[in-house]
Prior knowledge:
Layout: E1 5-9, E2 14-18, E3 21-26, E4 30-34, E5 40-44, E6 53-62, E7 66-74, E8 79-86, E9 100-103, E10 109-113
Amino acid sequence: MADHITITKADGTWSVRAGGAVLGETNDALELREGDYDPVIYFPRGDIAMAFLDATEKTTHCPHKGDANYFSVVTKSRKLENAVWSYENPSEDVAEIKGHLAFYPIDEVAVEQI
């Protein structure tokens, strides 16, 4: 693993909400820490209501994690463009995050330990 990235099981139960709807809840979240960045919680895809997410054409590349694909969150009142990302085929060093989704910490999205 890249020496500045650590992935551990996140303690407790985690939820993610947007637009008043619970998008998911899990006891199997992962916490990724990368250098000086804030930790990121990754939710197993199977614990997220994928009906609220629309895949977008956006992709980005991280030299340590690989290529990220993005999703927009569709709420009753609006679409939160590219608010979610996933590494479909992550680098071997961070293979644990395959099949997981992360959410940008924006005002309309709440990722919380409950």
